[in-house]
Amino acid sequence: MKAQLIERLKLMPHPEGGYYHETYRSKLKDREEKALFSSIYFLLETGNISHFHRIESDELWYFQGGDALTIHMIDAAGSYQTVKLGLDVANGEVPQFLVPKQTIFASSVEGESEWSLVGCMVSPAFTFEEFKLFSQDELLSKYPEHEEVIRKYALSSVERPSE
C-alpha cells in the first residue's frame, strides 16, 4: 500500500525527510503577492522522519491514512510539546492540527514498519525560501534542555546553499 501511494500520488523525497507532492497552489494572492495557500500530500515511514525545521506560515495537518503520526514542536518560548495525529480520538489522537508559524517542528511514526499519509495546507503558501532546516548543534545551542529529542529528530548537519 505504501509503495502504491508513493507511486500513484507522485510523491518525491522532501529535504526535511519523508515524501511529498504539492497538490494545489492558490492563484489568489495576498497583499504581498504571495499565494494565499498551498497543499501537499506528505508521507512518513519508520526510519524516514521529518526533521526539525521551521516555516514562516501556519501549517494545518490532516490525517489521511496509515498509522498515527507524532508532531514534535518547540515554540518560540522554548517549550516542547507533542501532538499525535490520527483517528484514535478516545486515546488523545486528533484528526487535524495547526502548527503555528515560526514553530520549530518535526514529525515521525514511531512503530516498526509503520507509515502515515497526511495532508498539509500552508497559509500563506509554502516556499522553500521561507523554509529553514536545523542541525542538532543549532538547536542544542538554543534549547539544551531538549537534548534527547533534538538528537533524535534533528539532522546532525545541514548543507546550506553557497551564496
TrEMBL record:
CDD domains on file: cupin_YML079wp (cd06121)
Positions of the DUF985 domain: 4-133
Official protein name in the record: Cupin domain-containing protein
SUPFAM superfamilies: RmlC-like cupins
Matches recorded under Pfam families: Cupin_5 (PF06172)
Domain of life: Bacteria
InterPro entries: Cupin_DUF985, RmlC-like_jellyroll, RmlC_Cupin_sf, YML079W-like
